[in-house]
Amino acid sequence: MGNSTKRDSDISKLHPAIRDKVAAIQKKLQSEKIPFEVFEAFRTPERQAQLFAKGRTKPGKKVTWVGPWGSIHQYGLAVDFVLKIDEKWSWDDKGARAKFWERMHELAKGNGMTPLFNKKGQLIEKPHIELIGVSATEMHNGIYPEGGDEIWAEYLSDLIDNWEGPGAAPPKPELAPERPPLDPTVLASLEIEQGSKVPDPISDAAFDPRFQKFHEFIKRWEGGFADHPADKGGATNMGITIGTLADWRGTDVTVEDVRNLTRAEADEIFRTRYYAMCRCGEMPERMAVVVYNCAVLSGPKRAIKFVQEAFNDLGLTVDGKGLEVDGVLGRLTMGAVQKTDAGVLADAFMDRQEKYLRSLGTFSVFGTGWMNRMAALREFVNTLPTGAGIRPTTKMSISEKTSDLKDFLTDALSDSEDNNKSSILKVAELILQTDTDDSSTRARNKSLLKLLLKNNLSDKGEAVDVATLTTGPDGKPPLTPINAALGETIGKAMNGKKSVSGIFGLLLTAVLPRLGISGDIIQFISANTELLLTVFSLLTGWGMFGKLDKAIRLVGMVNGRAQ
Fold it and tell me: How many CA atoms lie within 13 A of 88 on its CB side?
């Protein structure tokens, strides 16, 4: 069958001895604004043979001096870092960029990896870094570094099984899972139709039914050839840009090459560069399709960042803290995807993606199509299994539904003291996060919040202090029927404090358990969340009814004075 000769930049299959090291190096480079990315990770022996032959047939084009199974790349213990500037790969090591390469090598050494030197100590090639102390000769004899895992071992074993070239392949790692042979009596009864096409699971995208289900949605929105002047990706066909095709083929391509792209090659690019690179096959279905769709639209790295941001938006944590938003699909991020309720996380992800799309400068040109696509995606997601996992008890909405209420609150607080505006607005917004589309309910909320937050009413343009209209003979506000129902003592004690106490209690109950604080009080709140929310909601409601009662009496008194 043979292995692919395509370049592979996926670090998730590398030997664990360098997998995290490579991710750490890349993260550090990005933090220092040095634009290196992994150009190549695992390299098949077929690709190694192709590169080796290229140097022998084209003078001056040598890129490697060893044949298949002679490079550390074949064993998943080396990577090539290359500069990526303006979405184009660059091997430029002159001028100011020379320091970029020096810094990359410095970080490699600090993580137990090394560039390649000859016996004289001369640097052979700058992009290549590998694990210190390994030998291709030893590994070709089956002596592999300790600490391997099944992911690495299984991929290397596949390369070994599919090797058809000259020369012997190395022994398989001991960790490689071996499928037991079929029962000979059962095998003898099987009839294989002569001449039938057997799908190749590595190169034939049609072999993967799960991918095909999601890809059918993508194909609906990625049309034929286009070369829109506002599209920064340039000439595009079936969703594959000219830059992506050039990167895939490893050579420059023309607009005509893009126009002549076949569906089979486009599907293979989608499956390899987006679906597989984001490890969508390991995700629950609802998350797999939203991540895949976003990777196609905005790139795999941004898709993974949205996963991390959406998880954090929900107030969830891994080992007591949120995910780091670095666009790297590591152990913690994948674990978060697999263990979180897929429906909730997918919704938060799509909210994030829509917000990003609306922020783009080309939204006026392509926005309608993007939003139609997102609406169709939400419908499609709702047809998929909901999945299982942790479901946040308090979902922090990031939609724009509360924008009009927020504007109302800002206006309602215009007369409040500056030092109170921010805190009151934050409390009110938290209470309103469980928004509703029901217009009558929203109108009621506005009315109640106005009574709650404003401290004066106006009559004929003149402000009237509430306190001057509600004092009794003793100079203190008399109890309303709402407060009097609690009794004279309790009524006076709670007068003016029910709404504040209720809101404060709701805020503590909803927010404190998510701050990572430990203690008996937090444990009590976590164990009695529903009860406390009910009690404080009733208390807040009682306080609002009291304010309505006061407002009714107040209006009557104002009218009386006006007469």
Answer: 8
Instruction: Of 502, 8, 509, 526, give the one whose Cα is nearest residue 250.
Output: 8
Residues in the chain: 563
**First vs last C-alpha separation in the chain:** 98
Angle formed at CA 456 by CA 453 and CA 462, multiple of 5 degrees: 145
Write the single-letter amino acid at 106. E
Q: What DSSP character marks residue 206?
A: G
Query: Are both 267 and 335 inside the same structural domain?
Result: yes
Bridge partners, residue 36, by sequence: 83
The whole-angstrom separation of Cα 396 and Cα 393 is 10
The 8-class DSSP code of residue 39 comes to E
Identify whether residues 525 and 406 lie together within a single domain.
Answer: no
235 and 344 in a single domain? The answer is: yes
Range with lowest mean pLDDT among 161-165, 174-178, 182-186, 450-454: 450-454
**Torsion of Cα atoms, 11 then 17 then 18 then 20, to 10°:** 70
Q: Report the number of distinct structural domains present in the chain.
A: 4
Which amino acid, 521? I
Least confident segment among 60-74, 159-173, 422-436, 501-515: 422-436
Q: Is the pLDDT of residue 305 over 70?
A: yes
Give 210-233 pLDDT, tens digit per residue.
888 899 899 888 878 888 887 777
- If you write DSSP's letter for every residue of 158-205 in order, what string do you get? HHHHT--SSSPPPPPPTTS--PPPPPHHHHHH--PPTTPPPP-TTT-G
What whole-number distance in Å separates Cα of residue 157 and Cα of residue 74?
Answer: 11
147 class by beta-carbon count within 10 Å (0-12 exposed, 13-18 middle, 19+ buried)? exposed
pTM of the shown model = 0.42
Both tokens of residue 111?
């993580």
Residues 372 and 507 grouped into a single domain: no
3-state helix, strand, coil in the chain (%, to 5): 55, 10, 35
Any domain includes 191: no
**Host domain of residue 467:** 455-563
Query: Using one digit for the tens of pLDDT, what is the confidence trace for 339-381?
Result: 888 999 999 999 999 999 999 988 888 889 899 999 999 999 9
* CATH number for the domain that contains residue 159: 3.30.1380.10
Residue keyed to tokens 């083929």 = 249
Whole-number Å distance between alpha carbons of 472 and 20: 73
CB within 8 Å of 353: residues ≥ 6 apart: 290, 294, 297, 298, 306, 374
Say which CATH number the domain at 335 has: 1.20.141.10
Same domain? 334 vs 435: no
Is residue 484 in a domain? yes
Per the domain annotation, does 346 fall within a domain? yes
Structure letter (DSSP) for residue 321: B
Q: Distance (Å, rounded) from C-alpha 245 to C-alpha 236?
A: 9
Whether 322 contacts 313, CB under 8 Å: no
SS3 147: coil
pLDDT for the residue 523: 63
Instruction: In whole angstroms, give the CA distance from residue 70 to residue 14.
Output: 17
